[in-house]
Amino acid sequence: MSHHLVEVKDLHFAYDDGTPAINGVSFRITHGASVAIIGANGAGKSTLLLQLVGCLVPQAGTVTIGDVSITKKTRHLARRAVGMVFQDPDDQLFMPTVFEDVAFGPANLGLTGEEVEKRVEQALDQVGARHLMDRPPHKLSGGEKRSVSIATVLAMSPDILVMDEPSSNLDALSRRNLIALLQRFDHTKIIATHDLDLAVDVCERAIVLSRGKVAADGPTLELLANQTLLAANQLEPPLAMQGCPVCSKQG
After folding, report:
1. How confident is the model over 12-28, as pLDDT tens digits?
2. Eight-class DSSP state of 211
3. Residue 56 covered by a domain
4. Which residues lie closer than 8 Å to 38 by C-beta, 6 or more apart?
5. How far apart are the C-alpha atoms of 6 and 87, rounded to whole Å?
6. CA gap 136, 66 in Å, rounded
7. Which region, left, alpha or beta, applies to residue 54 given φ > 0 means left and ψ of -120 to 50 means alpha?
8. Disulfide: which of 118, 187, 192, 238 matches 37 by Cβ 3.0-4.6 Å?
9. Kind of pairing, strands 20-29 and 6-14?
10. Which range marks the domain in which residue 202 is found?
């Protein structure tokens, strides 16, 4: 069984007030892929991610992780394979120290003290944050919080890493460090982001959402070079593909 497989078929979801958020979305993501989910505000990106980790369950259609179709009864199984990094690190960091935050998940899996400590050290080493182990999370910088929030997920040994706007509110150096970190990961990665330059650097494939539907699905560079597609979906080309405005004026 491959827990890395993510398959969404004709997915529909509306909120309690009747507002449709996902309207017939289908795609398939296989082991080791890095996929960006992009679109304007309100396109359905965050709602889709919450479906992938079982925080929300389909009202119609299916979400399958490995060979498990997510329902209220099975979503706990999906969560063993999928780890989600939320947009705001403060939603994930709530313990007195970084060590305790990263240890929380493994401890709740029933691992022993020695096993938990090993998981914590390995996860913090992966994100370059072992030196923060004894620090209170609320005293960390934005970039440090982001690294630790990723470590809390890695400590659970997920097969699939799901991230919601991972570069939001990061300074330039922290953002570069995050991109380098993501490029090193072998995990299957699904990243919802407005940062299209990050999408170019990290994800070989992109899915464009518009009003809860898939507007396009294909190679990231190909989609982001399509000016008509971007304009129709309220997106701007990534800076790396816009050229230098000063040079163009001089030419």
Report:
1. 999 888 888 999 999 99
2. T
3. yes
4. 45, 192, 193, 194, 196, 199, 206, 207, 208, 209, 235
5. 21
6. 37
7. left
8. 192
9. antiparallel
10. 6-250
Secondary structure of residue 249 in the 3-state scheme: helix
234-237, Cβ contacts within 8 angstroms, sequence gap of 24 or more: 234/40, 235/38, 235/39, 235/40, 235/196, 235/208, 236/196, 237/196
Would 115 be classed as within a structural domain?
A: yes
Instruction: Name 9's Cβ contacts closer than 8 Å, sequence gap at least 6.
Output: 26, 61, 62, 64
User: Global pTM?
Assistant: 0.90
d(CA 196, CA 237): 7
**Residues 133-146 pLDDT 10s:** 999 999 999 999 99
CATH number of the structural domain spanning residue 117: 3.40.50.300
- For the chain, what is the radius of gyration of the CA atoms? 19
Backbone angles phi, psi at 18, to 5 degrees: 95, -5
Is 1 domain-assigned?
A: no
User: What is the total count of domains within the chain?
Assistant: 1
Strand duo 160-164 + 188-192: pairing: parallel
